[in-house]
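Input set for joint prediction.
Command: fold jointly, output tokens.
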Amino acid sequence: MSVAEAIKTETPAEKPEQVSHKITGKDVCVYYGDKQALFDVNLDVREKQVTSLIGPSGCGKSTFLRCINRMNDVIDGCRVEGEIKVDGTDIYRSGLDVVELRARVGMVFQKPNPFPKSIYDNIAYGPRIHGQASDSAELDQIVETSLRRAGLWEEVKDRLDNPGTGLSGGQQQRLCIARAIAVNPEVILMDEPCSALDPIATARIEELIDELREKFTIVIVTHSMQQAARVSQRTAFFHMGVVVEEGATSDIFTKPQDGRTLDYITGRFG
Amino acid sequence: MTDMDMSNASEKQTDFSASLKKRYAAERRFRAYGLTAIVIAVSILGILLGTISFQGTPAFFQTYVQVDVYFDEAVIDPSGARNEQTLRTANYQALAKRGLYQLFPEVSERREKRTLGKLLSSGAYRPLSTMVLDNPEIIGTTQSVWLVTSDDIDTFNKGQIDRNTVEADRRVKDNEIAWVDVLDAAGRIDMRFNTAFFATGDSREPELAGIWGAVVGSFLTLIVTLSVSFPLGVSAAVYLEEFAPKNRWTDLIEVNINNLAAVPSIVFGLLGLAVFLSFFGMPRSAPLVGGLVLALMTLPTIIIATRAALKAVPPSIREAALGVGASDLQVVTHHVLPLAMPGILTGTIIGMAQALGETAPLLMIGMVAFIVDVPSGVTDPSTVLPVQIYIWADSPERAFVAKTSAAIMVLLGFLITMNAIAVMLRKRFERRW
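tokens >
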């Protein structure tokens, strides 16, 4: 934790490996107006793994996450530089279809935000607008599968016509996850999905994330280091708009290379 | 040290409770102010509504006199051809008056006879022609018919003219009062519900004037206003709020829209006169032009209300829709607009209520004209309720005072109906998020 140690760890200790990267970020800089939020972030996300982004508030982890499906586009004055590739395609190149990108890269938000519609319509909305179901039977099937995968089917199967907003917080968040997986994306981004939930609901979501890993690549932003340790295989630690350290979760939490990481995970700041 | 701390603490305690007392007192005062304001507002409203309904109720009733009319073939159809045109335009007024003269055989002098004839309204004979056209068989028979009295007799019968005042000071003279008394004693005077008031257009004679022309005119005008200003206003607001880039131009447009909302309405009337009538040559006094002018006036209100309603939709809903891959337009049409709809409807109804009560701009485009016919389309000349109120309030006849108040009641009824529909629509759209 000495100054010398902190300087020494400027260079990443990661050895190059032969792994398939779903998402690669190269020299990503993000500006909100004149304020720069991300500084030359280089971060790769492996396929069919859970990558968690941790770091203190305002460190840029959510900003990076929202870059991956271009949700930052809707923020006035937000500008992204550098290169983010999903499956080798630069998602910031001109002419890229943002709607298609967002169908492939789904997102679950911090606060559960079901549509003020029925449970069924919440799930069916995505497949409907993308024309993924040819008839109503197929749509029913998609809704059931998605709800089952999100572990919500047993709880809501008898009241699919009830409003999604009438569910409990944890159920709403699982509904949002089901909504995200209903369009069959390749990547699911989760922005602190459990921060508004109680520990029991959180545990359910965490189990769910672990199951979803088989089919989807998941990037999760979390404030809880325990959560990162429990659900993710890879962890990236963000601080002041830079990625301080990225590596296997077990390594980050047991033998961090950077003094700032150590300080953060041991609770000295953040 | 601890003692001092404790004494400090107890000192603070007393300060605290003293200020608390003050705060509670302030709160009680504030509530009292609010309550007073509400009591004043409600009582003023009560006085307003009370006066209007007290003054207006008599207009819903009309005095009728029963006359035995002989349908003389020599007067109605001397040729006996039963031609419809002849039957329609025959001199029924003479027949009605003849029936009245027969009730008072002692009246023979010419001038006195004319005064007696004036007991009847100048339009009293109208039902007679309808009766003949419906059934030409009655020609040659004598029928007992209830005919509308003139406005002076009506006013007198309603007790609004005091028979004890000096004769020169009242419009109903002594001999007229005597005749009315005779008729009344014979059971030939009756007060009936004034259905004609709700079925006819304007007239110079108060007893014949109706509100229906103005109601239809207002309705047609508002239809035009709504169908122009609602789609235009909502689309403009949606574009400005959801799609337009935020730059100097959109700022300028926003400032101008806000300013337009504060422009005196008569200026819109002048604009309508210059653009719609002079330049485009649209018909004068027509609901079409009135509706367009009012639409211009209502647009800023609707745009501002719609933008506020769109802003109030939580961003989380937009994010959720974008997150599953909805396009910008789908986000707006599937999620944002339905959620903003209650607010949009509220704004629209405020704008429409304003438009319904607006007089000044309509004066500029000729809707203040005296129009007897009930309009049958948006290009027919017509008037609207507030203008009708203005015209009647300006008329000298005593009976128009009641008509004015009655018209105000109809206008308020129109307004309440409109608001009720809006509230119902809003309830249907209302959802939680």
